[in-house]
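TASK: fixed-backbone design
INPUT:
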């Protein structure tokens, strides 16, 4: 090593993954439903910039989190300048980085040779696929014995934490919350004011991420339409997010079209109802799903 040196104090490297991504509503659901669960499936603590900011020293907070992280996860979509700046900080001190993007043209030429995952949001199962691939890649990264392999002239001397063997406590807690069963609900459509009656089925042993089915009935011009909808479910503590991914007509009636539904729900303390909002084509409705008794 030459006489000219830059010494960076990493402090204690922890089993954490620092997530670098734009702070935009477009990515909020992606972070909560895909990225955070994937990181925790790998046994790492998930840390995002806006979760650690203090008003006085934003750059210092980010810098500390990058230095302490075992791995960095970067969302390149949109080429956000803050994302690029934080990526440069991590790259310069030898941190292993996993890149993701929904647009391959957003991967800068200099970063092309490094590991990145492309995902297509038009694929109805992109969230599940991305989560699985992310967990796999993160586990591979943290099982490596050293860091600072991608830039010459960087030597990192640190003690890396033991590779975690189990998911984080929150993931284990999620698996214990039972949402399984048959749930009934009804709501009025926004534009045509038609009553929709739905029966939601959540499978047993569902885990924090699962696929559910829902049968929806409504009438148009006095003819009944029955739709079978498939939804992906994601749990976070007592909160449940459901997103419709595809549907088929069981009985089409006079229906001209059907729009996939999504729901943001919270399990009641007695576990007998799911209350929240239905996100429909023309707006939102307050909804309550009631669990059918097994008696």
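OUTPUT:
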């Amino acid at each position: 090593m030459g006489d000219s040196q830059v010494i960076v104090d990493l402090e204690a490297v922890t089993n954490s993954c620092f997530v670098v991504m734009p702070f935009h509503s477009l990515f909020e659901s992606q972070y909560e439903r895909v990225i955070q669960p994937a990181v925790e499936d790998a046994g790492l603590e998930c840390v995002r910039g806006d979760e650690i900011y203090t008003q006085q020293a934003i750059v210092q907070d980010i810098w500390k989190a990058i230095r302490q992280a075992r791995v960095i996860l970067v969302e390149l979509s949109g080429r956000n300048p803050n994302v690029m700046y934080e990526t440069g900080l991590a790259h310069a001190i030898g941190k292993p980085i996993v890149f993701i993007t929904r647009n391959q043209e957003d991967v800068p030429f200099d970063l092309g040779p490094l590991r990145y995952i492309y995902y297509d949001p038009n694929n109805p199962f992109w969230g599940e696929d991305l989560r699985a691939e992310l967990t796999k890649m993160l586990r591979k990264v943290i099982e490596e014995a050293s860091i600072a392999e991608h830039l010459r002239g960087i030597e990192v001397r640190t003690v890396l934490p033991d590779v975690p063997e189990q998911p984080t406590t929150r993931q284990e807690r999620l698996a214990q919350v039972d949402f399984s069963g048959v749930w009934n609900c009804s709501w009025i459509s926004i534009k045509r004011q038609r009553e929709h009656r739905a029966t939601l089925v959540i499978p047993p042993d569902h885990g924090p991420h699962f696929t559910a089915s829902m049968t929806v009935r409504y009438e148009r011009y006095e003819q009944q339409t029955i739709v079978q909808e498939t939804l992906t479910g994601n749990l976070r503590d007592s909160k449940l997010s459901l997103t419709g991914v595809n549907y088929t007509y069981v009985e089409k009636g006079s229906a001209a079209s059907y729009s996939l539904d999504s729901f943001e729900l919270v399990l009641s303390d007695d576990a007998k109802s799911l209350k929240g909002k239905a996100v429909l084509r023309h707006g939102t409705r307050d909804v309550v799903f009631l669990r059918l008794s097994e008696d």
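COMMENT: DSSP finds five helices and 13 strands in the chain.
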